[in-house]
Every structure is written in C-alpha cells, then in structure tokens.
Design brief:
With about 240 residues, the protein is an alpha/beta fold. The protein has 8 helices and 7 strands.
Length: about 240
C-alpha cells in the first residue's frame, strides 16, 4: 500500500512540475530571448521551483555554515541524487547564475528552454564539447554569473541508498583559473523524497535537508592544486552524507 501511495505521489509531482512549466513558459520564452533579461529568467525559475515544492509537499531546509553574499560570484558544487536537485539549487543560488548539465537535457520538455539559452549543455564523451562548455562557463563567471554544477556528472542509479561518485576535474580547474570560490553543497536526504526520477520507488512529501558549507577560496591555488581541491570538496560534501 505504501509503495502504491509513493507512486501516486510521483505521478502527482510530475503533473505539478509539468503544469507549472506550462504556465511559466510564456514568461520564460520572453525573458530568455535577451541576455539582459536573464536575471528575470532566474527569478522566474526560483519562483517556479518554490511553487512546485509547495504543491508537491516538500520543504527545503537550508543550513548555512556561513552566509552567502548576493554580490559574490560562486561555483556551486553539489552531489546529485534526485530530479528535485535542480529546483533546490535554483532556490539556493544567489544573484545571477546558470547551470552546466548533460546535453540530453536539450530534449527535456521542462529544461530544454534553459539549456538552449542561459544554461550550458555538455557532451561529457566529447573533449571538444567539454572544452567549449567550460570556456563559455569561464566567460560567464568573468561577467559575474555564478555556475551550478554536479561534479559527479550524473545521478548514481546503481546503488540505493546512492553513494557519492568520483568527481570530474573540470569545475575545479575552472575555479582555480578564474579565482572563483567554490560552495560545496550536501543534499543530504533528498533521495528519500525522490531517488532519481522516482520511477522505481516513487516519491514522498517531507523535509529536504541541504547543508551549505563555507565557500572554499581558490585565490592562492594553482592548476597543480586542482586534484587536491577536488578531493577536498568531495570530502566536505561526503562528510554530511555519511549518516543520512
């Protein structure tokens, strides 16, 4: 009976997400046409994410190690266990921001408009695609637009509960090159609400706990420190997942 209710909630959640995507689409379309209105586009998807969370019945509970600045440019690095993660990071991010994600999202009916405009799609199997994606991300960072990235590269769909997978090198080299602080984000129990897309185990309402670590500065680092930085961020994020 519980599993049936979880599947009912998943179907209801998908319906809510699609409904609000449809309602917001005209405003997304207009604000995505010009880079000057990308700030409005981000505010709209923050609002959309908050409204979807409310009607789905999930509460995002953020715990900050240190307050983040609205005027600071960051690279947000988070573990990835659920389709809810994008909504959470939309609500968390300060100022102007954009995502980098797999190019398959260009086919996603909800996210397609973002990855055709403000966000950056990347084919992780192509070195040329990755080079171009990180070059564009670096240019955006220089313009004061924060980057949101899931350094695992994908959701772990093999282990339940999910395990933190090894990180890709790109975000950490970029952070050092652009002297941009990294904000490690531990999405601690999101998989309990919805693992991956929820198809296998359904979804449930409830509290989603998000721990935001103190920004890690990169101003005194060199490219040779990128592996050490990657390991440090991995350990920070994983430190809050062990007991969840």
């Amino acid at each position: 009976m519980v599993s049936i209710l979880k599947q009912v909630h998943r179907v209801y959640s998908v319906f809510i997400i699609l409904l609000f995507a449809l309602l917001f689409y005209p405003f997304y379309y207009l604000s995505a046409k010009n880079t000057k209105t990308y700030g409005l586009l981000n505010r709209l998807r923050k609002l959309n994410s908050s409204m979807c969370a409310f009607f789905i019945g999930v509460i995002f509970r953020f715990s900050f190690e240190e307050p983040l600045s609205d005027d600071q440019t960051y690279i947000y690095c988070a573990n990835h266990t659920s389709n809810l993660d994008i909504m959470i990071l939309c609500c968390l991010a300060r100022g102007r921001f954009h995502f980098m994600g797999k190019d398959e999202l260009l086919k996603n009916p909800v996210l397609k408009i973002f990855f055709q405009t403000i966000d950056i799609p990347v084919n992780r199997e192509s070195k040329i695609s990755a080079f171009r994606a990180f070059k564009r991300a670096g240019e955006n960072l220089e313009k004061g637009m924060s980057l949101i990235i899931f350094p695992e590269g994908r959701i772990d769909d093999e282990h339940y509960p999910p395990k933190l997978m090894s990180f890709k090198n790109g975000p950490f080299r970029l952070a050092i090159e652009k002297k941009t602080a990294i904000v490690p984000v531990s999405l601690t129990n999101i998989w309990k609400r919805m693992w991956d897309d929820g198809v296998k185990y359904g979804s449930t309402p409830g509290v989603c706990d998000i721990y935001i670590h103190k920004p890690v500065l990169t101003t005194n680092l060199t490219i040779n420190d990128s592996d050490e930085l990657k390991d440090r961020i991995f350990d920070l994020i994983n430190s809050k997942l062990a007991d969840k």
